[in-house]
Task: structure prediction
Amino acid sequence: MHSRSSVSLIVLTMMAGTSSVAADVIGAVSGVADPIMSSITGDLNSRGYEFEYVPGDEVNIRYSFLSNSPGAIGLVEGYQSVHFAVTALGLEYSEILDYADQYEPNFGKLIQVPLAVSGVGVGFNNGDVSAQNPLTVTADDVANIFSGQITNWNQLGNYPSKQIMVVYSNVDSGMTKIATRHLAYKAPHLFQENEDFMLARIGTPSGSALFLPVNGDQSVISVMNNIDGAIAFVGPNYPGFNDQTKVARIINDYDGIGYLPSETRVEATIQGISVPSTSNIQDWSPIFPDPTLGYPMAGLVFILASQCYEDLDVGLEVQDLLFVIGLGDYDGIVSQNNMIPITQDWALGALYEFSFHINDPDICQGLGR
Result:
């Protein structure tokens, strides 16, 4: 496998002069990845590119990209295409089949490659939790809290009696799916994996359990912060993601240590899986429901793109976006936003398997979004 430094020479040659070519490149981005993509596209735009995107919920993001429907993310007049997407949900097999049947004949093949590894935290609002008396829980505790079996803070440790209010997103959420994937593995009698919280929760709640649905992951954070005793799944855009007075430590059953979500270990997630040797995009979206090291509730964030673009300049800009991410140019931004960059072998593997072949004239003649 080539190193990033050797590949960067090839890529820089390919990119030379392309930043002077400006074409509007439209994206749809999950809220959890909004801070990262804001910084990355902002930097690229300062160098002559023209990226813009709309943050939104997972369902509309995926649908708008797969069907090339800007109206699904609120873009109507003057917009004709959605050129890329960033999502915390790997594409379902049914979505891939549907795309192949309905859209691939016009838009070309799909690209789905990992952008980063993200933990999902158990955030809360309770002034009784402190650095001296933090909240440390097991996966069973988390399952019991979010299924309504545990309903009072005094059941979780040395805390005064206080009602727990579970706040959850009532729209499909990548954070919900990553969290419930782990809970389904550890407590299958209470949860099944699903991006819809109410479909994921299969245990019967206690009569005293309180649940509050809100519209989307960002609303979850703001509502939770205004309800004393509230608790919720939170992503890396939560301001308290590294603060044990605002987010729980979850014990990894393999070593008995309680970890914060920022302590996700890449070697127990994507680094432990061989780089795919095929262009089957499902092979490029591995799952790890129960990592053996570090924080145990983690998953991948993905970039979706097409192999073919009608406007060659748009294709060049999307290709350059994948290049600079794959070469690690923005690993610092990923880390600053509480995610973990994917490993070099996966990043370079994606470059060779997908990015180098965008707008391949032997494949894309007459195709493209």
Q: What stands out?
A: The first helix runs from residue 4 to 15.
